[in-house]
Amino acid sequence: MAIRVSAVQYHLHTISSFAEFAARCEHYIRTAGEYGAEFILFPEFLTTQLMSIGNEQGEALGIEDLPQFTERYREMFSGYARKYAVHIIGGTHVLRRNDKLYNVAHLFYPDGRIAEQAKLHITPAEVEGWNMGAGEGLEVFQTDKGTIAMLTCYDIEFPEIVRMARAKGADVIFCPSCTDDRHGFHRVRYTSHARAIENQVYVVLTGTVGSLPTVDLMRANFGQAAVITPNDIPFPPQGLLAEGEIGGDMIITADLDLELLYRVREHGSVTTWRDRRTDLYTDWI
């Protein structure tokens, strides 16, 4: 079984209305649809662009204002998923629960269902700048194309959580990300490769590009999408099926061969998942 995936390097810039945001998102979805994509990944903090709309005084909105867009965000992406018959990982959107803010990835199914995964590991900047809370548990999601997980940015830097996702049956990790400089970007990129090798899974990664000059903590973005594989003979030597141009406003697309993944787990040059030493260290089953 093969899954065709697209990852959007979403260009952040100041906008004046939700309709402008929706039109831009549909542009990317329609473009991915022209390539036959079955899954489309948007980056972390996608909806911070809505903060640039501003208030009646012409001031940018704050992070605490983002939850007011939740219903429109959900209706928009759910409608696009049904209209274009695709699975959409709509980046992340900030939700308010019990007076706490959470950074939550959303999966929109073609039949209208919506699944959520809160970010589990929160960076110091998110805590100090936005007082963001951490999610409580990991889920994997069944689709008619296979089992996936959504782990957001900093999450991918922790081997244990990806091990848990693999143990729960995930073959593809979708990783929406948002990094402001090369250091942050390379932390996420290099650990994505490590997680693909350790667990023999695919990792689909993307990030924000562009700038929101009026929005705190979103004035700089350094991003590049990538579709990452285990490093073994059937796959590209660098473990890359596709990658974008750094900082570009663009989409990348690739096919994920799940049968090839299963074969490598059994008969690859290395079999890292099978060979883990559960007698020496804690494992997740």
Automatic annotation (TrEMBL):
UniProt superkingdom: Bacteria
Gene3D superfamilies registered for this protein in UniProt: Carbon-nitrogen hydrolase
SUPFAM superfamilies: Carbon-nitrogen hydrolase
Keywords annotated in UniProt: Acyltransferase, Transferase
Domain called CN hydrolase: residue spans: 3-258
Keyword Transferase in annotation: yes
InterPro entries for the chain: C-N_Hydrolase (IPR003010), C-N_Hydrolase_sf (IPR036526), UPF0012_CS (IPR001110)
GO MF, any single term: acyltransferase activity
Family: Belongs to the carbon-nitrogen hydrolase superfamily. NIT1/NIT2 family.
Protein name: Acyltransferase
